[in-house]
Each structure stands twice: as C-alpha cells, then as structure tokens.
Amino acid sequence: MRYLIPLFALLLLASCSKEDAFQIQSPDKKIEVKVMLLDGRPAYQVFYKQQVQIDTSYLGFDFQNQPSIGDGLQVEKFTMSASSDIWEMQWGEQSRVKNEYSELVLTLKESGEPGRSFDLTFRVFDDGIGFRYSFPKQSGMEEVVILDENTEFQLTGDHRTWWIPGDWDIYEYLYNTTRFSEIDALSKFIPGDHLGQVYIPENAVNTPVTMKTAEGVYLSFHEADLTNYAGMTLQVDTANLSMTSELVGNKASIKAKLSAPFDTPWRTIQIADRAGDLIESKLIVNLNDPNELGDISSWFSPMKYIGIWWDMHLDRKTWDYASGRHGATTEYTKELIDFASKNNIGGVLVEGWNTGWETWTEPDQRATIFDFTTPYPDYDLEEVVRYGKEKGVELIMHHETSAAVSRYEERMDEAYQLMERLGIHSVKTGYVGTIIPDGEYHHGQWMVNHYQKTLDYGAKHKVAINMHEPIKATGLRRTYPNMISREGLRGQEYNAWADGGASPPEHLPIIAFTRMLAGPIDYTPGIFNPSLKPYVEDHPVKTTIAQQLSLYVVIYSPVQMAADLIENYRGNPAFQFIRDVPVNWEQTKVLDGEIGDFVVIGRQERGTNDWFVGGLTDENPRSYTLSLDFLAEGKTYIAKIYKDTPETNWETNPTAIDISEQEVTSADQLSFDMAGAGGFAVSLIVK
C-alpha cells in the first residue's frame, strides 16, 4: 500500500529546517538522508545510527551542446510519502518480499536560463537508500546527449574495500582486497586479452563494490533498474576518499542519448551492521518496477541442468565440427538426457550445436558466421528435443554471438521463432569478443538496450534468458522474470584454463558479498574431479567436493548446473546432494560469514519445511558450529551431512568426503571442521 504521510505526522518522517535542506528517515529510523542546496548546488549526506556514512556529495550532469546542470538551482516543490507492501517473487531466494520505504521528491529548477528542471527522488529503506534523477518533457531537451553524470559518493574513511576494475567490457576479474586509498584499477588487467574483450580508461571500479568501515559498518554501492542508459562505473579519488559516477560510453565519447521525459537508474547504497545482511537485502529488486510479464510458470520453472560444456573447457571435446572431436552430437546429448532424467535434473545445455564455430573468433568472419538455426550434420536438433520431452528433460538453447550483436539482432526473429516452435523455453546467450558494431562496449547504453531486446523477444516467444558476458544485474528480474540468471564474474571455467590460473579460495567468499548482491549467478558448480586429470595436468581447482556441494546453496541461481562430466557423478554418493537440492526457495537466512573469509547460508525449499545449508571457507581451515534454531519447532528432521574429513586437502586429497545421517531438531547443533578451500552441505528433511 502506498500512502501520503498525513501533515500532522510529517515531522516523524522528515523535517525541513530551511527552504533548501530536507531530512528523511528509514522506517526504522536508523538511516537518515539529508538533501540540500548549497549555493544552488544539490547535495546529500547519509547517516546510519546518527553517524555520517556518506558526507556532503554533489550531484549534476554535463551535456553535449548545452550547459551543464548542477548549480544555480532552486527548489520548486517537494513531496514526502511512505510506502509499504509485500510482493510475490515467482522464483527466487524467497517467496514474499517486503517493500517498505520513505520517499522524498524534490523538483529542482534552474533560476536562470535555460530554466531546465528535474526531479530528484530519494527512497530510504531499512537496508539502504536509492536515488535517481527524472527529467520531465520540456523545451530544449527533446534530444539530450549525456557526456558525464556527476554523482558523488564522499566516504568518511579509508575503508577496507573489495573491488574489481571498472572495465567497460568485462567483469571477469579476481576481486582485490585493499584500503580504498590503495585502489589501482589500471594495474589489474586479467592475464591475456580475453579475445580482445578488455577496456578500462581510468582508475575506476565496477559495482557492486563493497566496503567495511573501521567501526564495522558494511556499505555496498551499486545501481538498480538500469534501463535505456549506460552502465555506471565509479571513478575513485584515492586522495580525497571519494567516488564519482563514470558512465560507460562509446568511442564517440557519448555516455547516453535520451529524449525527455526520462529517468536514470537508481544509485544505491546498502548499509548493514552484519555482512550477511547485505546478502539478505532486497533493496535492488525493490527499486525496480513490478512484474510486467505476469505468471510465466507455465513455460519456465527453476531447474538444475547438465550440459556439453566442461568437456570443451577441458579440451576433451570441441565446439567446432571440423576438429573431429565435436561435442554436440545427437548421441552424446541423448546420453546426457538419460542421465538427467534418472537424477532429478530438469535440463540439458548443448553448446557448439550450430554451424560456424570453426571461425567464430576470426575478425573478418565472426560478423556473419552464426545464424542460430542451422545445426551441424551430427546434431539432430528436432530429435534431441523430442527425446528430451519423452524423458521429461528440457533442452536449453545456446546462442553464442561472438559479440557480433548487429548480426544477432538480424537473426533473432528466426532464432526465437525456432525455439518457440520446438518448445525450447530457455537460452544461454554469449557475447565473447569486442562488440560489433564497432565503437560500442558491453556495458554501454547501446548494449544495455540490446540485452533488454533479448528479454522482450524472450517474453514474446516464451523463452527465459541466461546471459553470459552480460550487462550487470540491477534487479530487473522483478519486472521481467524471464531474466533468470547471468554470468558477469570470473566463473568456474577459469579453473580449467592453465593459462588463466585457478581462482584462489578467497574468491567464492568474496563474490557472495559483492557480485551476488546484484542478482543470480550462473557460476556452474559441481566439479567432482578437482584435479582435472587426465585432461589438465598440474592445475587443480582449489576446492573440495564438500565445498562444491555447498555452492548449490551459497551461490544463488534459479538455474544451477551440475557442471562436471557425468562419469564423475556416476556411483559417487556425494552426488545425492545435487539430486536432492532444490533451486527455488521459500526463505533465505545468511547464518554467518565475513567477506573473503567464509559464508554459511540456509535456505528453505519453497512449498515445504525442508531446509538446505551450505558453508564454505577460504584457504584457511575453519571450525564452525551450526545452530539449527532456524528449523521449525516441534519437528524432527533427517539431516544428511556432507563434510570434509580430517584427511581432506584441496591439493592432495580433494575428493575425501564424510557423509552421515542423523535425526535433529531446532535445539541441536552440528559441528564442522572445514579444510582449507573446503566446506560442508546439509539437507534437513522433515521426518
């Protein structure tokens, strides 16, 4: 329910000490935002428990062929209101989401020529804030070219910061842990050029970027509802401990081209006393519009899947047909379908099924090579779809565009019509390489609009989208529930690449508190042969089997891959957890954790009283006592426990795992000794 605050209660929510200063509080009164005009310049401050967290920070824009806006402003009017409702997630980390906030809308207008105006809206939640700019239709803004958005975030200390470079083309970096003053993004390029897909013009970080103050307050900066706009990086001023929005542009130096009326995305700051509260926060999705697609459950359901994918990263098979080791054959796909059908796995992803992979990275050919409808001679697309339906297993389509996006858009009609005709209801899209048309970047406005186009096509043809090499997640899954998952991080595949280097054990307990705050992650867990032998020598994944099981709970996605070769699952008792674990949740509790060290998460299966818990640690062995007080009182549960053994070691003995079963209640505790790079997983099924 949304309502205007009654006049007699206005001071309980916000106060106006003078005409150009306003205060607004969160519903629980712990967060306060002060918005003001200082000599005609809009600025804001953010307080948490009466302590300044964001000091005076200014706002404004630079435009092409018209004056900047950011000074000489006056308040035309203001409104204050509050809103509280609960909305249903069709799929997700929980079934119901509370959306409660206080809102301040200031209408600001230039006191002199050209007399432009805009609304500045702040929403203050118990878990953070969001603010955005809205430009109404007005003379002189029929076409606007934004050169810079000058949104500032003035920090109050040299916070401990977890960050990746503000690359305009890729998010696939290891996270750095430094003081804010030590951020040096220009020195942190990933090894190699990732098929030319790397560009960073200045010392900036990508979002979400997470920090911890000396007083123990956690902050995370991101954006919500990124629509028809450029993705935002944050340029850092290490000397003055501040950040300024730096939009991703193109080679013509255009950040965004718009016509009034338009809204910018929300600029967001999550605030918490506990690291786990950042994960539990629903600030980002709450700042997006309600569902526009209605109920899509008739054609998409959350699921686990297997696929022809890890084969290629191990160089056991190939994407291309000409190699003679082609992976996407009818025979192999049917073998995977049979395995999925027997093991409670809903889908099979097939990569390398369509013609063109022989030259997909060649600069002079990639712009035209893929047509997304023509299979190789050894792959009968219609037959594998038919066979999958017979076995109760969905085929997941794969569209690798080689970043030839203009070509993909030309072919989308036929490609999506084909999926609809065959009853294929999900697709993994990919954009490896530099963008075609030339001059655009993966995270710029042109590509933001393309990613939206895939969602629109998907909705029209009943297809859910799992984006790789994507734009960042900003909560649009609330508005478009066919936006099911995405990559957007250094994923599991890096662990198979000897030249790329296996990710360090701290990577996973960092991404849980950084990248995962943006939305679901297609990380592709479930590697049961961490040594990778005989396909890769002397390059083990820094993990244990127990940790790989924990990822099915810790790293959220409504589509979770069992990524390893199926022969590594057959006959392995640890695979039972993957069979059992759901991918759709009634509620989520982050039970414990510290960024970069460890994390423990419990999730209740939607529609039941059953719970699943996953915990993982960095390179340091860690003892942990799990209290089961989150379970329903008065019920007995069968706990099936998967944990590292005293002999488990990610380098020498990563497959050692202890599996046991016992009855428990909410009064019990379970003890674990996690190996370095290890973890545990528990299923708790009502007896």
Q: Could you name the key traits of this structure?
A:
14% helix; alpha+beta; 687 residues; 39 strands; 11 helices; disordered N terminus; 35% strand; 11-stranded antiparallel β-sheet
Helix content: 10-25%
Q: What summary fits the major beta sheet? A: 11 strands, antiparallel
Content of β-strand: 25-35%
> C-alpha Rg, in Å?
25 Å
Average pLDDT taken over every residue: 95
Task: Give me the count of strands.
Answer: 39
Our count of helices gives 11
The dominant shape is globular
Secondary structure class reads alpha+beta
Low-confidence stretches: 1-18
Query: Termini separation (Å)?
Result: 39 Å
What does this structure look like?
With 687 residues, the protein is an alpha+beta fold. It is built from eleven helices and 39 strands. Strands 1, 9, 10, 11, 12, 15, 16, 18, 19, 23 and 24 form an eleven-stranded antiparallel β-sheet that branches. A nine-stranded antiparallel β-sheet has the order 2-3-4-5-6-14-21-20-17. The chain is globular. Residues 1-18 have low confidence and may be disordered.
